[in-house]
Amino acid sequence: TNIIDSMLRMLEQYSSNLEDLIRERTEELEIEKQKTDKLLTQMLPPSVAEALKMGTPVEPEYFEEVTLYFSDIVGFTTISAMSEPIEVVDLLNDLYTLFDAIIGSHDVYKVETIGDAYMVASGLPKRNGNRHAGEIANMSLDILSSVGTFRMRHMPEVPVRIRIGLHSG
């Protein structure tokens, strides 16, 4: 009976350890799923992200009235050449964090940032009638105003200027 009792205790302990391991791995999986969902919703409009998560096909949509905003940093290549890589990363992070805060108060959708290029749309993925041009124009003025007081951490004496383009259609 000692051998059997000993084996039963060992099996119970193994079972308990296995349950703990499964619980731990399930929690890790849930955390990773949340990170994936967050990244997906940052990269895609919420309706597209939900459709992809559910495995349903995403049908292309036609948007009749949309205004796009494009901007880049004037002299970015020169600034980059005079800066350490981490200083360029800090500059873009600081500037686009500022821009992201501004666009939050307008009916717009950030489409993409690539390097020093920043692209925003209004009128999609949620249609807003004929307000798209006004939303982008007001957002552009707010961004332009904020850039006037923006300073680079590593070159505070160099003013940051941006080039802005808009297109409505």
UniProtKB/TrEMBL annotation:
One of its GO terms (molecular function) is adenylate cyclase activity. One of its GO terms (biological process) is intracellular signal transduction. It is an enzyme of class 4 (lyase). Residues 4-31 form a coiled coil. It catalyses: GTP = 3',5'-cyclic GMP + diphosphate. It holds the Pfam family Guanylate_cyc. It comes from the Eukaryota. GO terms for cellular component: endomembrane system; plasma membrane. Residues 67-169 form the Guanylate cyclase domain. It is found in: Endomembrane system; Membrane. It is a single-pass type I membrane protein. Its EC number is 4.6.1.2. Keywords: cGMP biosynthesis, Coiled coil, Disulfide bond, Glycoprotein, Lyase, Membrane, Nucleotide-binding, Signal, Transmembrane, Transmembrane helix. PROSITE patterns: GUANYLATE_CYCLASE_2 (PS50125). InterPro entries: A/G_cyclase, Cyclic_nucleotide_synthase, HNOB_dom_associated, Nucleotide_cyclase. Signal peptide: none annotated. SMART domains: CYCc. This is guanylate cyclase. It comes from Aegithalos caudatus.
